[in-house]
Structures are given as structure tokens and as C-alpha cells.
Structure prediction request, 460 residues.
Amino acid sequence: AIVNTLLQTDSQTSDWAGRRVVITAGPTREAIDPVRYLTNHSSGRMGYALAQAAARRGAEVVLISGPVSLPTPAGVRRVDVTSAEEMWAAARTEAAGADLFVGAAAVADYRVDSVAEQKQKKQGRDGQWQLTLVENPDIIQGVAAMDQRPARVVGFAAETRDVETYARDKLARKKLDWIVANDVSRSDIGFNSTDNEVMVFGRDNQRYDMGRQPKSVLADALLDLFARAD
Amino acid sequence: AIVNTLLQTDSQTSDWAGRRVVITAGPTREAIDPVRYLTNHSSGRMGYALAQAAARRGAEVVLISGPVSLPTPAGVRRVDVTSAEEMWAAARTEAAGADLFVGAAAVADYRVDSVAEQKQKKQGRDGQWQLTLVENPDIIQGVAAMDQRPARVVGFAAETRDVETYARDKLARKKLDWIVANDVSRSDIGFNSTDNEVMVFGRDNQRYDMGRQPKSVLADALLDLFARAD
Prediction:
């Protein structure tokens, strides 16, 4: 019985052996000047949990990470980036030919059109400052359109309303295989929480509701799903 | 000799006994929507070091802190805030009649004019987004103009060029007693560093250059300066 258990565990923990997994995690920071920046509330926990689970299960894992205060999971190769443009450059390089790409990072949709080299002083008599933002590269869409597209491309959708509608639209428009959606207006899950509760939508109209659970447990459930042959 | 040393230490560590010190620290975050925000690179370390030193030397210390990942120093009462407007509300309440107010926080000069209740979607055909920012309350200037103005009001100036010019201008314009200035374009000191190197300017044209040293040591040197009778 003991041998059987060990074999099962060994089999379970190595089911991703020989596969290459690339994951983005955390926020990006978009500089306004040397002092100020735009960012978002992503803690990186979901992406890091996925990287840890995939490595534990035998995958070769590259974790492309925005600025977060989390330790690098054992066996994971971590590439640190700051801005969305840096994350896109790293993703393009690492994702080519991968078995799985998961875009768990909360990439800033916009950056400042021209970053000031000096700290900007208060300006204008009316006390207003017009900041012109321009669109960042769309990393998940870009990866899904690569010549050497990863076998599976999984996106995330952090929404505050109409979660399913926005998520399904993003899945189809960006030609993803799966999208993991959550409601970030809830303070008990999502950003900066150790728990998450998500809905997963597949390109063949699948829907899985994954109830509230620790991100580490959810990571294994998601990998089970992404491992399936279509 | 042993008694003498103990007495000196005791005297040294209680020289702020009976005095009330209010310190702001860390960045502020200005929400754009439930997901995105504007902020800056302040780690809060300098303000926390000052709070710790003042408490150790016997002061009653209130630390008004933006979002940072630092432990609260022993004996310090910490008031957590997020935005500049929240910090101003807390500062106005706590600073009245204090012996010393130190504005070590890197307060966002601007906030978004109207915070969106829902996560904003990409907008516009041209891929641009105009973000209208409006001025935040000027906390240090407001405190220095209070009816129950603290006996000493100390500001900070984080500059990337012309450090002395900007700092002296801020000192005079905001009617401060002291201003602590540093060059945040240097990566070896300042934001997110454990060391700092500052110049301190006084309202009577004093200037002190305080060479590179740990922020904990610098905190004691600054308190020595602020403790002096004028």
C-alpha cells in the first residue's frame, strides 16, 4: 500500500514533466517621471501559485514577474520586468513554442506617452494636469497570434461587473484557449487575498465555476484543466 | 563609571519625553478606478526611522502612514491612510498643538479628478486616454498654517535636480522651520534604500550636510537638530 501511494504521488507530481510553461504575474509599473508611476493592485499571488504548482509537477517554468514582494518558487526561472513593454519583450522571447502560456499578470493597459526625465513640478494656474496615456502592447493577444504560438494560451480577466460577458468577449476576440475570470470588486477574494474564486471559460463554450479556495489549491485545479487534451 | 554610562544613556534616550511628535510616512495612492492607481516610489523607511527614534527617546509618537510594508515601531501609534486627502484629514487632527510635525511622506501632488466606480475599459479609437489630474491638498503647507500650529514643522524635498534651490523655495513658501532635501535621482540613496544622504535647510539660513548613513542613524541626528531651542 505504501509503495502504491508513493507511485501515485510520484505520478501526480510529475505529470507536467517535459513541458515548458511560461507565466506572467504581478502588476506592471508605468513611469510618469523618476518619482511617480501608474500601477494596479495585483499582488502576483495567483501567478506565483501557478508557477509553483507547475514546477512541483515537473514542468520547466519561466515566471515573468512585475514588481512584487514574493519569493521565487523553487525550481522556477524568474525574469523580472517593470513596464508592460518590458513584459511583452520577455513574453515574446520566452513563449515561443511553449506548451502553456498563462497571462496572470495585471498588465497596465496604458502608459504615459512620454516619460519625463526629471520630476515634474506642479504646473498650470488652474491646478490641473492633463496626462496623456497611450495603449500598451496587448501581451496575451500578441502571444496568441505568434507564429510559434504556445499550445495553450490562457488569459485572466479581472472585472468589477458583467464578469462573464467581458470574459467571454476577451476569450473570443484575443483567440485564447481558456480565460480565468474573477470579480475584483469583492474584497474577500482576488487582489492581495490568499483566496480566489473564479469562473473558467473555454473556447468550446465550457464553463467551470471554481468556488472560493486558497490560490495554491486553485492553481493545481487549473493545471488539471489546462493539461487535458482537447 | 557604569552608573555614569547608564545615566547618560537614560538621559539620552528620554530627551523627547513629554513631547508629542507627529510624522507622516510612505507614499499615497490615488485611485483611478477600483483596479488602477497613481503612486510613487517612497518606501516609508525614513519616516518610520524617525518615528522609531523619537519613540525610543521618549516622545509620544503618531505615525500617519501610507501603504507600505514595514512593521510599526514599538511604542508608536500608527494611523493608516491611502490617499493624500485621507492623510491630510489625519494630519490636521493629529498635528494640532504638537511639538514637532515631520512630513516625511511622499504625498501625491495630484489625484484623478473623478474616480471611476467600475474598472475602466480601453476607450477611444486613437488608443489614447486623457487623464485629468487635479491638485491634492498641500499637507505640509496646511499644517504650517494651522491655528494650533505645531512648534516645529519639518518638510521633505525629494528632488532630481537643483536640490538646494527647490528646497529653499519650498521652505520659505510653505513657512516651514526646516526642510530635509535629498536627490532621488541617485539610486544608492533615498527611495527604497536603507541609506540616505541629505541636506537640511533652516528658516534662518542654516545648512547642514548630512553624509550618507543608515536612515536609523540619520533619524537620531535629525532629532538632535529639531530638539534645539531656536
